[in-house]
Amino acid sequence: MNNSSHFTMNVQGINVYYERYYNPSKPPLVLVHGFLSSTFCYRKLIPLLKDEFEIIAIDLPPFGKSEKSTSFVYSYRNMANLVIKMVDRLHIKNAYLAGHSMGGQISLYAIKARPDLFKKVILLCSSGYMKRAHSSLVFSSYIPYFYLFIKHWLARQGGVLRNLSNVVHDRTLIDQEMMDGYVQPFYDDKIFLALTRMIRDREGDLSPEDLNSIEVPSLIIWGEEDKVIPVHIGEKLHKDLRNSSFVSFKKTGHLIPEERPEYVSEKMFDFCHI
């Protein structure tokens, strides 16, 4: 049985969208997406995983279909706590946790805080070693209508097509469905107000010392042509996460769940011994 349902859960005072692919006889797998993304990024990977896992895919606020609150604290620690609270409230035990890009860093925060909840973690082109935003940018975020600057800056980057061209190696994969899926959340101006808050709240990535203290087994998967988070970041994470293994794919960019879903799913199955 692989029935899927879409839900909203009120967590920490805001409404969080998630999808659940029921398969109660199989181990649970929690999927966390990256910055400016949503559960949509797992659309090619989920069909390959849902027979072997019970999947919970979360839209982190303010992304996807989750609430774009301006009062929520968008620190990585708080977003990790949100994931933890959802896992607890869904009565999930011994879950596998997978995070792409920023979602990988949030997953690391989650397993550091509650290693008892998660059996193993999979990091897909995870962010790492990023510092807190410069104090001048944090200060500027308090200027009235700063959110319009963010909106203009994102538009000036060339729109969704250019952004997708930067995160995938094989640009022939970019079709209308992909463009529509990634641009949809930005039709709501509230997301830019929330991103302004995120600039202030994001505290930076875990330190090498923090990473050294993590004992939960981790699998690090990377695209060797990643222009967003270069492969040397993955190699450094592998060094600092003592109980980790590392694999990379040639001719693959940052959006690895879209570009290499078959290979990624195989590596995940092997890592989880399925």
Automatic annotation (TrEMBL):
<dbReference type="GO" id="GO:0016787">
    <property type="term" value="F:hydrolase activity"/>
</dbReference>
<protein>
    <submittedName>
        <fullName>Alpha/beta hydrolase</fullName>
    </submittedName>
</protein>
<dbReference type="InterPro" id="IPR029058">
    <property type="entry name" value="AB_hydrolase_fold"/>
</dbReference>
<keyword id="KW-0378">Hydrolase</keyword>
<dbReference type="InterPro" id="IPR000073">
    <property type="entry name" value="AB_hydrolase_1"/>
</dbReference>
<dbReference type="Pfam" id="PF00561">
    <property type="entry name" value="Abhydrolase_1"/>
</dbReference>
<dbReference type="InterPro" id="IPR000639">
    <property type="entry name" value="Epox_hydrolase-like"/>
</dbReference>
<feature type="domain" description="AB hydrolase-1">
    <location>
        <begin position="27"/>
        <end position="261"/>
    </location>
</feature>
